[in-house]
Design a protein that fits this description.
Blueprint lengths: L2 E5 L5 E5 L18 H34 L3 H28 L17 H10 L30 H5 L13 E3 H4 L11 E3 L5 E2 L5 E2 L4 E4 L25 H4 L12 H4 L2 H6 L17 E5 L12 E2 L5
Antiparallel strand pairs: 1-2, 3-4, 5-6, 7-8, 8-9
Length: 312
């Protein structure tokens, strides 16, 4: 292979090929035209730079992933606040049991057949229908009448107030709202009835910022089942229907949105079962009650729900 050199006007030496076929390789051995060490250093620098950029990109992606998946500090604080609220409610229900010899009922209707769900009965037991204390003659009627339907229990008469128990939860730190403050359409309920709400608040149609009602389910200790596959099993310790009428009202401000716990009652028995026990058809709180918060998303039956036991 023939290589020619010639000088340019600037005195620099240049390489050119003469009579070479396209398949021949062209080599130049002059310093100006070929510097193996310089080329190697350039390639090394490019390789290192690309590796550094790739590493930086990976670090950035990992940080973004962590920021997106880790709960916000404010969210964590609210979760702890919600757990504290449930803890105080547990203690208050135990005080109620000491005074009245049993936990409050949680059936979907009252003795007269009117819709009066577990969440409403919880609020009456803790604070009374007028938030001035629970009347011991109450049979948990939606209209506040006694068992004979002849005497209104929640009045402001001095003797009436003296007979009251509690309030077991102080109004100053309890988020209590009338049902009509939360739902624009209260369905079959009396919109003036109160419920205790969770800490995750949103502005409602009423202009008030409220959380979602805390659901209450009392255990029927005469039953033994926790049938995940048959929610309507009459032997189930807990009855998902206790708050189903309330769930049927949907999500406030989203009339077409339904709670998973309402559309699929099996979720109730799945989320309340004891995960570390075999067989798995055992329930948490089988001797007392279940309290359930809808969590940050405002939907009952989703992974962010918070209860008075550890859920998986």
């Amino acid at each position: 292979m023939k290589v020619l050199h010639r000088k340019h006007k600037a005195g620099a030496r240049h390489c050119e090929r003469s009579n070479l076929k396209h398949s021949d390789y062209f080599f130049c051995y002059t310093k100006d035209c070929h510097d193996p060490s310089g080329l190697a250093m350039t390639m090394l620098r490019s390789f290192v730079s690309s590796r550094v950029l790739l590493a930086v990109l990976l670090i950035v992606l990992i940080c973004l992933f962590m920021l997106l998946t880790m709960p916000h500090p404010h969210r964590l604080a609210l979760d702890e606040k919600q757990k504290s609220q449930l803890h105080f409610t547990i203690m208050s229900l135990n005080f109620f049991r000491v005074d009245l010899d049993s936990y409050p009922p949680s059936e979907a209707v009252d003795p007269s057949g009117q819709p009066y769900c577990g969440a409403m009965k919880l609020c009456e037991a803790m604070m009374g229908q007028d938030l001035l204390g629970f009347h011991p003659d109450s049979v948990f009627r939606s209209d506040g009448m006694d068992a004979t339907n002849t005497k209104k229990l929640y009045t402001s008469e001095p003797n009436n107030l003296k007979a009251r128990r509690g309030p077991y939860l102080p109004l100053e730190i309890t988020k209590v709202y009338r049902l009509k403050d939360i739902y624009e359409d209260v369905g079959p309920f009396d919109g003036n009835n109160y419920v205790i709400c969770g800490v995750y608040t949103k502005k409602r149609h009423s202009g008030k910022k409220t959380g979602m009602p805390i659901l209450y389910y009392k255990a029927d200790t005469s039953k033994t089942a926790h049938d995940i596959n048959q929610p309507d099993n009459p032997e189930n310790i807990f009855n998902y229907k206790d708050n189903n009428n309330l769930l049927s009202l949907g999500v406030p401000g989203k009339p077409n949105k339904k709670h998973p716990l309402f559309t699929n009652p099996k979720i109730f028995y799945e989320m309340t079962k004891k995960w570390m026990v075999t067989p798995t058809n055992r329930t948490n709180r089988k001797d007392s009650f279940i309290l359930l918060s809808a969590g940050k998303d405002g939907l009952y039956g989703t992974p962010d729900d918070i209860a008075n036991f550890n859920m998986q």
